[in-house]
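Exam review. A common question shows you a sequence with its structure tokens and asks you to describe the fold in words. Practice with the pair below. Do the first one on your own.
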Amino acid sequence: MKSNWKIDREHSELRFETDYLVISKISGFITSFDASFQTDETGFKNITQVRLVADVNSLNTHNPMRDAHLKNDQYFDASRYSDILFTSTEIIQGSDGLPGEFLSAEKKEFAIKGILTIKGITKPVIMHGSFGGAILEAGRKIRAGFTISTTINRIDFGVGDVIHTKGGQLLLGEDVVITANCQFIREAA
């Protein structure tokens, strides 16, 4: 029997960061996203079907003019490609393996191979993950915490161009670090 896990949006975040003018970082969040995965009935050793869907229109860098610019057709083209999608193809456990029981406080490292689609372009990626632990809370809900991150080249996904300043510095970095800090809740069987 499989257990389904859904993201707790109130206790989760999806953020991104890249270099700006080579001298600093610029970051932002995608505030509307959904994620889920499945496990077997005993523990996390057999995580499958990891899926994340993020709404580009909820992109927020705390600068409305920059947000509008990033949503235009030069960058995300949010009017045509509103969703970013990640689907797993394989879970690679660390040397110590993922917990065999749900209620574990042991931190564990793992990786998720999958496919990422941004702006209609699909590429393979590897997400690096850390299991933060799981708890049983009032009401018999089991919560589990994970941090998952990857670095992608935005040019590979058609997000913007390589632009240099008059002084020759790269205006916006090509590499983007994507990090998800997530809590998941096990759905009732």
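Now try the second one, then compare your answer with the model answer below.
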Amino acid sequence: MRLFIAIDCKDLKEYFIKLQDMLPKEDAKLALPDNYHLTLKFLGKVPKSSVEKINGLLRKIKIKKFKVSLDKIGFFPNENYIRVVWIGISPKEPFIELQKNIEDSLKEFNFKKGSEFQPHITLARVKSVENKKEFMRALKNMKVDDNKKIEVKQFKLIKSTLTPEGPVYEDLEVFK
């Protein structure tokens, strides 16, 4: 099973679609997700026999309810080679603390540790960019409504099944 741990951000789906509509599609070939979440930890392929143990460890994490605001448009990995366009979150500290608790809880599994955790919600995956200069200018001119809030009171263990039409997500467990 291909698994990850995330915060569901579907409450702002309509707003995220509006932001996606503002992306400069004439300068780039984009894949636009329609499932909005903030990934806390990508686990990768996990044997089905390990899922209950993972759930047990994650149930021990105490999550305090918190609210965050949308921040700004960003991209990975860098301006010269854009592969992901994302929207940031502010403040980051509650997510960083929760992500660290998840990492610590699952130490015994030796899951691959990613690069430095950067809380974000993916708006688009970039397949190619024709005019990098115009694409970057458009991204830098996009404004985010920082009055848009996400209330976090749970996180989920999610199964991701890859299909030709894109990933299909299934919630395996919700941790409150």
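Model answer, second protein: The two ends are 23 Å apart (CA to CA). The chain is about 25% helix and 45% strand. Full marks require stating both points clearly.
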